[in-house]
UniProtKB/TrEMBL annotation:
GO terms for cellular component: cytoplasm. One of its GO terms (molecular function) is ATP binding. This is AAA family ATPase. It comes from Streptomyces argyrophylli. Pfam families: AAA_16. Residues 493-520 form a coiled coil. The keyword ATP-binding applies. Keywords: ATP-binding, Coiled coil, Nucleotide-binding. The lineage of its organism: Bacteria, Bacillati, Actinomycetota, Actinomycetes, Kitasatosporales. Residues 15-184 form the Orc1-like AAA ATPase domain.
Length: 893
């Protein structure tokens, strides 16, 4: 409990807040002591009126006295639908104080990504990746905070913040360890729901234990009462103040102000009047008090509540349809009544015609909810028109348009569609979705409705595949969507079905649409997508499908992108089934133009999507053209990073680049890249195909490095176990899982997993023994208990490897044969494996073959070469194995 009363009555809500202020003082000590100190986050929770805003004001005062820069922002109930509203409040003043070239210099590469979200730059593209925008905002604050040290960020009423701000705040809170900044967040408990509640919980988890504010005790209420109305207030009167207000600091301050206004004597005989005064201080009483100020003042307050932000006398006058002089009179009256604050001059102007604010969020909420529904709707409509006429854009007007009743207004539908496009351009798909859903409720004209549904499906593609499916299916069921838009909608629908793990439905969707078209580029495009989705099915691709694809591709010369797509698909299919690697490379090369991707087939081109190019790079990867695979995947990472696609696209680019590194034997680079892919994949969502690719690749790489316990830990942490996705995963998921189980000693489980891979290969009509090396691992696992079957598996693997024809495939098959052989035969086979793998681009397999040959031949020279290769690759277990044999030296020559 605070022993003495605060220095001034204005600090009244700070009674009994010693613990919170001490925590802040300690955090400020750390912040101001050293610019390299770690950042910290404090969360203050309390019900309405318990003094959160007053506490933040005191923190500002103390921090500024310590020489800190303080940036602040506050959520508002009526502004939750405005994306980036709160983070713009927080950062815009600092950014607008810079010259444009200074802002660009400080934000660097993030300027074009974070700038549109912050309202200081124009969008560079139609759609911005929400995750990349979030990362850009994090980077922006980090860079600005280094310039402004020591910096304190204050966020009030975070429960009313927009989701885009909360997403940034949650990401920023996780990265405070290496940034010297103090963040203080105030919120009410239980006010937020859904994603907002989840994000607020993530913020709280990143900071110190939250401070939960409690009501004032009777003693503190008595002290506050005497500090406000006079020391002569008697005990009975003070006890009644506490009983009436429940110790709520805001209610107590407002009640005591009413006591002063009414000149009520603070004695027991007058205590009975307190309850009536309290009813007039807030809620319905506040509304009655407002009405008592007159109709004009009430209309002014309503208009201010409708605007919510940017409240100026001129704007309110126009919205409330009153002249300027009357509006200024109303503003003065409302300020005197402690409903609005005195106008603040704009920063640096010295003028007195600045923005108004409500004294407290509780007052703003009460005023807004007191507006009659019909009047409220009409005023929102007028506010939207005012904003539009001032040229502020459809997105700013949208929050008012969302409140207007549906009325078959074609113009409103177009405004909402324009607002959705603006929201998408700054990385706010949730806001775009709200606008388009409201446009549907208007409703749009029948010929427009299909287009709105199509746009709505596109807006939700990154965030909710299931919703996307519903909207696109509805759009396609209408007559308004035709031509290229219809075909694009079908393709997007099939992609959404794929990402929603409805692969068979994705295939049927494009197949049915293809049947509606005559032979030509459109039909060929749809057929290509059908073959693409069938080709990435993990279990049930039939040999008949491969024959149909081969027949269709045989007619293609690569003269347009539809034909190039079919050539890529045929090359990928041939690679997965272990057909001639030379033919695979020829097919893939014919899909390029002068060795590069054709125009319209780039990584960010939407007509074909990234899946096709991932298949192209994968075909090169397993056909031993790792130079081309690395070049493709490195370009994907560069393009997605530059374009700001920091979600699933960049995750997959990293996963496949990590695969290329793993195949090359660059195990350290592979591990780092795959870990980055997994971090990005987790942001998108677990159990999706891209998540499996990153996890499987990382487990495979850790096993190659000999880090078995770590590989098992990753598998356990990230759910690398059945049930598997319906899409194909590279590297082969069952082969990697089976090898992991064998490595940790779960031999029977490992054999079962590899035998399941064998059944899958049989259903698909064959396999590539390098892509899916289950046969080699299974042969080694069965060598002791079933040598005949092991020998047969090894022989089959060798036959398939020779059919495929790469040095890596043949070398790996020979390594397997050598492992099953004994005596001089084993030495000979190991020597032949080295010969092939020396010519292979897969240096890890070469290193393993060298070590195995060195041990079999008892050769110091070969072990030394294997040791050098293993070190270069980062294969720690091979290094240890070679060293152990070399150090013992028994039988070596």
């Amino acid at each position: 409990m605070t022993e003495g009363r605060p220095a001034a009555a204005g600090s009244a809500p700070l009674w009994e807040r010693d613990a919170e202020l001490a925590t802040v003082a300690q955090a400020l000590d750390v912040l101001c002591a050293d610019q390299s100190s770690a950042g910290s986050l404090l969360v203050i929770r309390g019900e309405a009126g318990l003094g959160k805003t007053a506490l933040l004001a005191e923190i500002r005062r103390v921090a500024e006295r310590r020489g800190c820069a303080v940036w602040s922002a506050r959520g508002a109930e009526t502004l939750r639908s405005v994306p980036f509203h709160v983070v713009r409040q927080l950062l815009q003043p600092a950014l607008l104080s810079l010259l444009p070239e200074e802002a660009r210099e400080y934000l660097g590469d993030w300027y074009d990504i974070a700038g549109p979200a912050l309202g200081i730059a124009e969008p560079q593209a139609d759609n911005a990746d929400p995750q990349y925008v979030c990362d850009g905002l994090v980077a922006a604050v980090r860079r600005l905070s280094r310039r402004q040290w020591p910096l304190v960020l204050l966020l009030d009423d975070a429960h009313w913040a927009d989701q885009e701000t909360l997403r940034w705040l949650a990401a920023f809170a996780e990265r405070l360890d290496d940034l010297s900044v103090l963040v203080v967040v105030a919120r009410r408990p239980g006010e937020a729901g859904g994603d907002s509640a989840r994000l607020l919980d993530a913020v709280a988890a990143a900071g110190r234990p939250a401070h939960n504010l409690s009501a004032l005790t009777p003693d503190a209420t008595a002290g506050l009462t005497r500090a406000t109305v006079g020391r002569h207030a008697d005990d009975a009167f003070c006890r009644e103040v506490w009983a009436v207000t429940g110790g709520n600091p805001y209610d107590t301050v407002e009640l005591l102000a009413k006591v002063q206004d009414s000149e009520l004597q603070p004695v027991e005989a007058q205590a009975g009047e307190l309850r009536a005064l309290n009813r007039a201080a807030r809620g319905g009483g506040l509304v009655d008090r407002l009405k008592g100020l007159g109709l004009e003042a009430t209309r002014f307050a309503w208009a201010a509540a409708i605007l919510g932000t940017g409240i100026t006398v001129d704007m309110v006058a126009e919205l409330a349809t009153m002249d300027g002089e009357l509006a200024r009179t109303c503003a003065d009256l409302l300020c005197s009544a402690r409903i609005l604050t005195e106008p603040r001059p704009p920063a640096g102007t010295g003028r007195g015609d600045g923005e108004l604010e409500f004294v407290h969020p509780l007052i703003a909420t009460a005023v807004y909810h007191s507006i009659p529904p019909g009047v409220c709707t009409a005023m929102h409509g007028v506010a939207a028109q005012m904003i539009t006429e001032r040229g502020r854009g459809a997105a700013e007007a949208a929050r008012h348009l969302l409140k207007v009743h549906p009325d078959d207004d074609e113009e409103l539908v177009e405004q909402l569609r324009a607002a959705a496009r603006e929201h998408l351009a700054v990385g706010a798909p949730d806001a775009a979705r709200r606008c388009l859903e409201r446009a549907l409720a208007e409703p749009p004209l029948p010929e427009v409705r299909a287009h709105v549904l199509y746009e709505l499906g596109c807006a939700t593609l990154l965030t909710n595949p299931g919703v996307t499916i519903d909207h696109l299916q509805s759009a396609l069921g209408m007559s308004g969507l035709g031509g290229d838009d219809r075909v694009d909608a079908v393709v997007r629908l099939s992609q959404a079905l794929l990402h929603n793990d409805q692969l068979e439905e994705a295939v049927r969707t494009v197949e049915a649409e293809a049947a509606r078209h005559e032979a030509g580029p459109v039909r060929m495009r749809l057929q290509a997508f059908q073959f693409m989705w069938e080709g990435i099915h993990g279990e049930t691709v039939s040999p008949a499908r491969s024959r149909r694809l081969a027949e269709l591709a045989s007619t293609c010369t690569g003269r347009d992108n539809a034909e190039r797509a079919l050539l890529i698909l045929r090359g990928f299919d041939a690679m997965t089934h272990g057909e001639s690697a030379d033919e695979v490379i020829d097919l893939c090369d014919r899909a390029l133009v002068n060795g590069r991707l054709a125009p319209g087939l780039g990584w960010t081109d939407t007509e074909w999507g990234m899946e096709l190019l991932m298949m192209l790079g994968s075909a090169y990867t397993y056909a031993d053209r790792l130079d081309r695979a690395e070049s493709l995947f490195a370009e994907a990472r560069r393009v997605y990073t530059t374009a700001g696609w920091h979600g699933g696209h960049l995750s997959l680019a990293n996963a496949f680049l990590g695969l290329a590194y793993r195949r090359q034997g660059r195990l350290r680079d592979a591990e780092a890249t795959l870990r980055e892919a997994l971090v990005l994949a987790e942001r998108v969502g677990r159990r999706l195909p891209l998540y499996w690719s990153a996890t499987c690749g990382l487990v495979d790489t850790l096993l190659a490095r000999g880090r078995i316990e770590e590989a098992w830990s990753v598998a356990e942490r990230y759910g690398f176990a059945p049930p598997y996705p319906s899409t194909i995963v590279l590297p082969d998921i069952r082969s990697v899982r089976g090898r992991l189980l064998l490595a940790v000693g779960r031999t029977e489980d490992g054999i079962n997993e590899l035998e399941a891979a064998e059944k899958t290969a049989a259903s698909r009509g064959g396999h590539n023994p390098v892509l899916a090396p289950w046969s080699i691992d299974l042969a080694k696992a069965l060598a002791g208990q079933d040598p005949d079957r092991a020998a047969q598996l090894a022989a089959d693997a060798r036959r398939q490897a020779e059919r495929f024809g790469t040095d890596t495939a043949i070398g790996e098959a020979l390594r397997c044969a050598a492992a099953l052989a004994t005596g001089q035969r084993a030495v000979q086979l190991a020597a032949r494996a080295v010969t092939y793998l020396e010519a292979s681009p897969c240096q890890y397999e070469h290193a393993a073959a060298r070590v195995e040959y060195g041990i079999a031949a008892r050769s110091v020279a070969e072990l030394g070469r294997g040791l050098d290769l293993a070190r270069a690759c980062g294969a720690e277990h091979l290094v240890a194995q070679a060293r152990e044999v070399l150090e013992t030296g028994r039988g070596l020559h």
